[in-house]
Protein 1
Amino acid sequence: MILTVVFALAAAFANATHLLTQHVASADLPKRAAGRRVVTYLFRSPLWLLGWAAAGAAFLFQAVALHHGLLSIVQPLLVAELVFTLVLRRYALHQDIAPAAWSSAIFLCVALAVFVTAAEPQGGSATPDSAQWLSCLATFGGIVALCTLLAARGSPMRRAALYATAASIVFAFMATFLKAATQTLTSSGPGQMLTAWPVYGIVACGIGGSILQQAALQSGPLSISQPLFTSVDPAVAIVVSIWIFGERYTNSPVKIIGGVASFVALVIGVIMMSRTAPATINASPHFHETPDDTSHER
């Protein structure tokens, strides 16, 4: 349990690092840069490269956490990415953070701790059968398709919400496939893992989820999509963990009520953080990295 929590939180921190470094590196592009010059500039930016290293680390940390722990624990813990992002924005980017944002972060951490403790997820099967996979994939695949079709028109807020919901479901299944792939890797070796379909499901979900995520970001305000990105993923993961892996929760009515209430509080905390954190990510001048050969373009 402790190993699962440590690696899940490490993945959340690495994801936060990836978000900030990639954003700052992209925002620091020379104004006249375009095409191949953009690619050249980014590949020479230490921040941009650090961001991709952090993304790789996050993937590995999540894989280890999922292998040793339950899907219903790991995915909710990744919500801590929001808190780590706030901390990095204050101490790495030197942004001014409102007291309300810190209060929201503390509220979210408490809700997350209470959920993991009260729900007491346990059990589960490392090898789900084909019927469970098919029924679950068909159900959630249909929901993703419906959200994507409905997001083709409507108000910016509606489109952003639908795309964000679809993206979050896809990313939840990416974690599900990752858990299945790590089980195959440790039990049968890398050769068997590469011949099993979950590893290709990871690739498909990574591509599809990224496309849907970008569509959500481009369709409407971040204040709509960010809470859904962060809350729908663990909610779907909890359903999938029961459906596919047979994970189960406490039988105590009091603890069940506490678990449901704390998850609702977790979602409220996510919304509060999205509303109280700084609207833009602006690094201090000392944080920027500028390749020498393009510094004259600023």
Protein 2
Amino acid sequence: MPALRLERIVKKYGKVMAVDGLSLEVRDGELLTLLGPSGCGKTTVLRCVSGFVRPDSGEIYLGERKITEIAPQKRGIGLVFQNYALWPHMTVFRNLAFGLEIKNLSKNDIYQRVEHALSLVQLEGLGERFPRQLSGGQQQRVALARALVLEPDILLLDEPLSNLDALLREQMRFEIGQIHKQAGITTIYVTHDQTEAMVISDRIAVLEKGRIMQLGSPSEVYSKPANKFVAGFMGTTNFIYCRVTTVAGDDVAVATDDGLTLRGRGLGLHKDQEADVAIRPESITFLAPSEARAHPQGTNIYEAEVIRASYVGELIDYQLKIKNHLIRARGDVRACHGVGDRIQIRLDHNQLAVLPR
């Protein structure tokens, strides 16, 4: 049985459809991320689950219990806000203990649970400090510990890292994933950051206009996008408009109007159908002259002209022209090509997604 189930949730704000008939099951113990651009409905979904927003229609179940009409404080849900929302006049220990005191737990139980929660977030020994005496990352850990100490049935995280600087955000991604594994609490995480979602998630639900565009593991969503929106949202992607010429299972051949032929992978396609080929920069390999001569007419091997070459540290970011098409690629700094160079490249057909228009 899923830990959480949403059935046909609808929420409108005036004429704006924030959530459009969304259904979703969250597995027990998993970390599922709601990912999408601003305005896609992910935070509204989270607020419906928490009880701070009531859906116009649809039902929400926590286990077997229907919680659609239940007040937020009675749902057994922990929520970590974007702005931490710590009480500045209370110590770290008191921030965590306050919710337990309301439940009339004994002092010993409160002490044990607070200390355990602080150890989960690696803040042992900082219980007597005030929030102002902590770094941003430490404050974020306190907010997380305050939710965990209540031992909720499910944990909701609403863009918890958005207020941190880039380096600290990267560090906290891994730490949140580790804390989740240790605590074992079913978690829904909301973010617009694709890398963040890829690092921490068991599964990702990509949202747009209040609907789930794709639900799957990070590798499935990235490598096998369900449509052009998902392919474009999940990292840098080149798109080439084409028409399907042959289909053999999931092996698809396509051609463009200017005579470029490509092979890729796709499902549910048929001959003469309009499509887009999604090409990730990492699927493009730069060939040495000897390799190019050995495979002069190999699959997805083309001559390209270097239009732009930008140094970005460990890689060179290129803009290449193949016939009339501009694509982005990344190459090794040790084999830098200059603007105007004509080079040979190979596109890995197993990594090219052919998507119906």
Protein 3
Amino acid sequence: MASHTREVGNPATTDVAGASWSQTRALLRVILLLLAVAATMWILYALRGVILLVVLAIFFAYLLAPLVELACRPFPVRGRAHVMPRALAIGVVYLLLLGTFLLAATLLLPRVGTQITQFTREAPSIDRARSQALAWITSYEAYQLPAAVRDALNKSATRAIDIAGTYVTEGLGNVLVQLLGFLPWLMLIPILAFFLLKDSASFRAIALQTLPQGRWRWRGRELLRDINATLAVYVRAQLIACLLIGTVCTIGFSLIGVRYALVLGICAGLLEFIPLIGPLVVVLIAALIASVYSMKQALGIVVFLGIVRIVQDYVVYPRIIGHGMSLHPFAVIVAVLCGAALAGVPGIFLAIPTVATLSVGYRHWLAHTGSEGLVAGLLKRRD
């Protein structure tokens, strides 16, 4: 009888033990998953310099890809179509780019060097401009604001002007020194871009072979195609925006009568590639330099750059980027702030393309899991 009782009780004991082990296993899986995510984030943070280098090489490859594809088109020779080898086409594009760069440097470098020399001689006057600008900005104290509000405004204004003054008086030399220090790394960008341009189809095929045949591989092919199109649109739109802003700012600064208009215009074009922070730095630096000679000129620069930003952000840039990357301005601002908090300037630089890539991946995941109705009209097939 006792034996029979043990036999009856065994299934219940086994069920309790099995349920307990299932819960323990689920908890272990969650812990391991969290540890894996934490380890991945730590590795990505530790390798952020290498990741930034690879991303810059990818961006450089996207910039040159249209020229390479143009050079690889068939051309007739004695009635027969010939195609230039891809490696040779990339080499030709590199030579053309190098020649263009040397020509631009020959034309612009004398004037840029002269303005930089003059700026270095007059840099001490920028320190006087800090106090003038701070006195002008803190004129709100006459409005009898609460003491806590005045202190907060004073600290913010002082910090902004000090940062701008530091960028103006010391930033140029520091940037040049840092660029010289990173020169060996920067030389790797065109080398890595060469392999990306040459073997991009092979890399794509290797990535797709890791997926099962059928729906998974088809979805992976569509995902890579859409990510490629999105990044291409973003990088080329940024390049056009940099060239446009640099040209417009140089002309505008010259018409306003600002000194070092060419240097400031080039800085405006380069900083345009850094969302939000870049244009703000340009306003601070240009206004601070102009305030040395005339507060009206500084105010004119602020108004001019404000109009440029409105026209660029709401009229020109949407037309340049088209429908290739649909991100709400709220998402862009939040992404840039998160990138700045996580990784500083590299995070700001990488924020928008990262969010755009994640957005494309999320839409494809919804479509893959059978939610095509929710993303109809968002995921468009391209020719």
Protein 4
Amino acid sequence: MADRIPFVVIGENVHATRIVKRDGRHVGGGDGSEHVVFVDAKGQDRIMPMAGPVRAGSDFEKGNVKHVRNALLLGLGGDHVLPADLTGDVDDELAQIGRDYLIAVAVRQQSNGAHYIDLNVDELDGDPAIQKAAIEWAVTLLEPELDIPLALDSSSAAVLAAGLRISNKPNGPLLINSASAERLDTLDIAAETVSPVVLSAAGVGTLPSDAAGRIGNSQDIVSAALERGIPLSNIHVDPLVIPVAVDSNAGTAYLDAVRAVRSEYGPEIRITGGLSNISFGLPNRRLLNEAFVAIAVDAGVDSGIINPNGLNVEKALATDRGSDAFKSAADVLNGVDQFAMEYLTAFRSGKLS
């Protein structure tokens, strides 16, 4: 255990659902000429034009750009992986921009401390055959550009298996994200390929509403993994982080579950979660996220599915816990400040800036 990484960062950004705002700093142009601005892996300023399906979609009309999906469409279309009716005509130059964009997103997360790069192509298209072809293409594209493994993320076991089969594992075993009570076939894949795997505490058809539900579901899915011969050292349990804006007790329910899982399984198992989910719907999310990382690590968390570009774990752990801002955030996260009323008052008065 001495050589184990203290906290594993699963970088979450190469995901087809990710959006940037059309009126935000990541998008230039306007009146039909919008493009995503980015810095490529060589440090050059670049622009990525919009693929037709992205521009024509309802998200675009609502002011959102699915930038990773856009890059996938350009790259896959140019490499003739996708049918022409999905992408339209994509020339070599546009395809290279799509490839360069995906590489830049992955490399930046690696540079900022990620230990895995989470890859999800599910929302590229609903056709399972296209999803499998896309994840194979993306794995082949990204692995040579990285020094760390990928984490393959999909709701389909077949898509996960396709990505694992195509990988040469140049940077070590890939992480599978994720298995749950509804997706036990994913555990079979993890066992067969000797892959580390995220185990979700989601139940069958529902999410747990309290700590007891999270603990019970975690125990069930860990038992299922152990029965298949998956060692504790390959398990990342996710007791599920729900926004405190939705449920004031969500933070305490997650933290209580973390403590119980750590107590039952000891130091070898990993405990993870989408830690920045906790702050959705509230202002000054960085303050809440950094405070939650610090509190979660105290409880026993040693892994996180996060954006390392915006949430630095070392900085979070060095946070001044005696500051009024940290105390205000902690009261929200621990359920003391119900509905974040005092936190919102402090924010509006400028005390949390």
